[in-house]
Amino acid sequence: MKKQEFQRIGVVLKNMLKDEKFRQKIAEARVLELWPEKTGESVARHTKQLFFKNDKLFVEVDSPMLKSDLVMRREQLKNELNENVGFEAVVEIVLL
Fold first, then answer.
1. d(CA 52, CA 82)
2. Which string of b and e fits 35-62 if b means at least 16 CB within 10 Å?
3. 3-class state of residue 94 by DSSP
4. Which residues contact 43 (CB under 8 A, 6 or more apart)?
5. DSSP conformational letter for 86
């Protein structure tokens, strides 16, 4: 039987946070949480889908007017979301 090595939880968490893929997933989850706060209640209410694929944030809204507004603001939103998570989680916002 193999002897197990024990590590402090702080060391384990610190090592996990150094892992780029793990950091990306945590940042993506935070971006999804921040979406209603950064876009406002009306946009959040009309957002039908919100998901990540290959570092791109895909957003589906049910209003053409809202979609055109988001097209104009997507670079600003991307920067704000990335700034809030402290990591470039969003490379691009794709509106569906």
1. 14
2. beeebeeebeebbeebebeeeebebebe
3. strand
4. 36, 61, 66, 70
5. T
CA distances 20 to 68, 78, 80, 88, 90, Å, are: 33, 19, 21, 11, 14
pLDDT for res 2: 58
Paired tokens of 29: 């989850």
Digitized pLDDT (tens) for each residue of the chain, 96 residues in all: 556 677 788 887 777 777 788 888 989 999 999 999 999 999 999 999 999 999 999 999 999 999 999 999 999 999 999 999 998 999 999 999
Phi, psi (deg, nearest 5) at residue 77: -60, -45
Provide the whole-model pTM. Answer: 0.80
Crossing angle for the helix pair 9-18 and 20-39, to the nearest 10 degrees = 80
